[in-house]
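Batch manifest, entry 17 of 40.
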Amino acid sequence: MLRLQQKRQLINLIREFFTDRDFFELETPLLVPAPGMEVHLHSFTTKYVRHDGSEEVLYLPTSPEFAIKKALGAGFEKVFEIARVFRNHGELGPQHHPEFTMLEWYRPGSYTHVMNDVADLLQYLSEAFDALHHEPDFSWTGIRRTSIQDCFQTYAELDLQRGMTDAEHWRAAAADVLGEKIPGDDTFEDIFFRVWLKLIEPRLGRSNPEIVFDYPASMAALSKLKSPENIWAERFELYIKGIEIGNAFSELTDSNEQFKRIEDANSEREELGYPPHPIDSDFIQAVGKMPPTGGIAIGVERLLMVLTGESDIHEFFLYPLGEVRRK
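Output type: structure tokens
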């Protein structure tokens, strides 16, 4: 019961923080025509049955992002949502649950404006959240900002930028630092995540919350590329105590590029044996109508974990999936 009370307090504080700053709270649908575009995320599928017996396939959202961007394209500007989202296929573990709460907010500007919002939100919560877990070697005051290139150099002694264009060097250098053989069919991104998960991610945000920014362009997802080089994406992730808490972008506002990226993601899904996601044409059109915008998605239960010191995300759900098996 205590963890659920803490969850309710945190959600109330988040809502207070954004409404006091003139963000408008949205409530987007839980039945959507397309769940997302992420290659490795899987959705829950259902059907709407009409009176005549015909059926329409619908999805539970993996994120409210598509729906929120439709609102942005229609004229909304500063918005937030505390949404229920759903992810299928193995999303069950100490940091994962198939149904969870996601905070998303969007504002005029870019990812640097969202970085400032994140710093302000964490400072506010560190002062207002009653259940804050204090650790002698961790400070909520201030937030580190580190480029992903510097992360690879500092923690793995790898030149990420060179690795993006020199496949032979990337494979050999990564194998050396990992002390293991790299499979011959591993792509750049496969090797990236081998290094990331083993050597880098566990060390992030250990003394302060840490923003890791400017991901390789191949990992741009829904973000703009950083000019003039266009080799980095205006994307950042928030890490606290070695846990990824949020993912943020300078949002893509080119509908043609957005359509291409969804097609590319679907091609990759099919190569992996996954069904392609439907393409939501209303979302594509809305992207082209959006002003310059920064946005972020934060997992609320994961944020609760680092705020309270809890090690199991299931403690923040009334009836977590797999509860019987865990006991």
